[in-house]
Amino acid sequence: MLNLKAQKLVGSIPASAGNLTYITGINLMDNNFHGEIPPEMDRRQSLQYLNFSHNSFRGKIPNNLSQCNRIKGSIPNQLSSLLDLKHLWLYGNNLTGTIPPWIGNFSLLSSPFLGENNFQGSIPNELGHITALEEFVVEENNLSGMIPVRSDNDQSSLYENDEYNKSSLIKPKTKFDGYRKLHGELPPNLGTMLPNLVQLYYGGNKFRGNIPISLPKASRLQTLELSQNGFSGTISGESLGSLRSLVWLKIYGNQLRNRKVGDLNFLSFLANCTILETRGKFYTWKPSLNLTTLALDHNHLGGSVPHEIGKLEKLEQLYSDVNQFSGSIPSSLGNMTLVLNLHMGLNRFEGSIPPSLSNYRNILDINLSSNNLTGTMPKMLMELSTLSNSLDLSDNYLTGLMPLEVGDLVHLTELNVLRNNLSGEILSNLGRCTSLERLYLQGNKFEGTIPQSLKDLKGLEILDISSNNLYRQILEFIGKLGALKYLNFSYNDFEGELPKDEYSTGGQVSTLRDVYSYGILLLEIFTGKRPTDDMFKDDLSIYQFVVMALLDHVMVVVDPSILLDLEADGDVNDDIVREQTPSRLNNRGTPSRCNNRGLVKAMKVKECLVSVMQIGLCCCAMSPRSRC
User: Fold this and answer.
1) Could you give the CA distance from residue 154 to residue 125 in angstroms, rounded to a whole number?
2) What pLDDT does 366 receive?
3) DSSP label of 403
4) Tell me: the pLDDT tens digits for 172-206?
5) Does the pTM exceed 0.85?
6) Which of 198, 367, 412, 597 is such that its CA lies 20 to 30 A from the CA of 156?
7) Where are the domains of the chain?
8) Residue 89's closest CA among 49, 148, 130?
9) Which residue intervals of 449-529 are DSSP H helices?
């Protein structure tokens, strides 16, 4: 046996490897070999084990490998005679083509690992004939179609055969980058057909229908990954709660909903799952005592969250955002003292934020945004010294003053309280939050001046205090915050000159003034959009949005309210609209003089808008030396 697994080896396999006459096994897994598998490898009559997974091989597999008795791993049609094959490990290569149906003739095959390749087509029905199948992995491919299921005319099924009850893993996930093509419904008796199933990964596909109520029959199930599909219907609390070995539950990104009061009680049943483990890859698990991850986000779940959710005392991650939950946030959440990530935004929660959340001693981020929460900004949240990622309370109805204790959040990188009803002055204590990179205070009722202490926020990249009641001059230190990428002071009562001090780059003082914020402000005013709007994500920014439309389609990106205001100045807006439609012709087939005057006026307005947009783009060019 030649075992070179995970030795950081590179290069290609030499043809001389075919001279190893009596070798019985070769394991080259987890290296960086490349090129083609040498055809000389087909000489090995004694070879019983061959593992080339997790390398960068390309090309075809040697056709004559079928001469190797009981070899474990290949795809060409010549291998259809290997009826004694038990393991087929081709994981993590660049293999293409379809999964051949004759693999279904390998009745002793227990673990075909075909994931992370470029296989296409559907999963053959014939795979249901493999009576010894225990693990089936085809994730990260371009497969499409339905999972083979027994029908009246076809006795083959990937789910149902005499020996597949031994199965521990089924993982038919396709690529997560848009090639999510597996579809169909899960058999309602799935748990009955696979009572020994341990891990079920169906995330990122197009499966639909109900989650099978027979899952409790698979009593050994540890991992249930059904996220980002089209599952609908309700969730059976008793079904999930009886899976006492459950490790990982992910059902976010579906169309699950509750149809009557009490349908959310499945959350309380999860407290029965006491033999649980933390998340990890499908082959690596670390034991724990209780459920650590619960992801329900991006569904249509509604109603009140049951108080019993607090029984999940070992929970570390709770994602229930983007649903229709309502009622108050249960105070029992405070019992889950090990929570690291609490995401409950974009729901309909109301009432105040429960004081029990101050029990979190390891919390990294809290997101309660876009709800109907009222009351004051909780003082106890400021006592969570471990908060380091984000505290997001935006788009609620919080009132009153910002707590003085906000200055204790010395590790926090993002504070977002935009669009609430907070009042009073911006606290000078914020200057103690020296880890802040993003500070969103816009859309409140803050008044007074900008505190001088903000000069200590050297790493601040985004500062938005727009739409408040702030006044007096903008302090000069703002121009010296060299890390700033976005600055918004609009819709306040500031006076005097902008500070626009020498531009600091890399610790060296420059004579260039930072006009970036002014350019962004121009683009905001004339497009009616903000750089933080939801449409600006991935590679699209407000800068690119204007650039793409500037020459030929500038009127598409202009704020419609500007054009409405121009109507008061003699039908300019109508003329602009006319400019984008065929001209009216007089009886001689030429444009009328009246229409010409309108088009000229419209063209002047368009030219003016283009000029303003060009100034804005020039001011916020990526390179400071390229700015106006």
Assistant:
1) 9
2) 95
3) P
4) 433 233 334 677 888 888 788 778 778 888 888 88
5) no
6) 198
7) 523-626
8) 49
9) 516-527
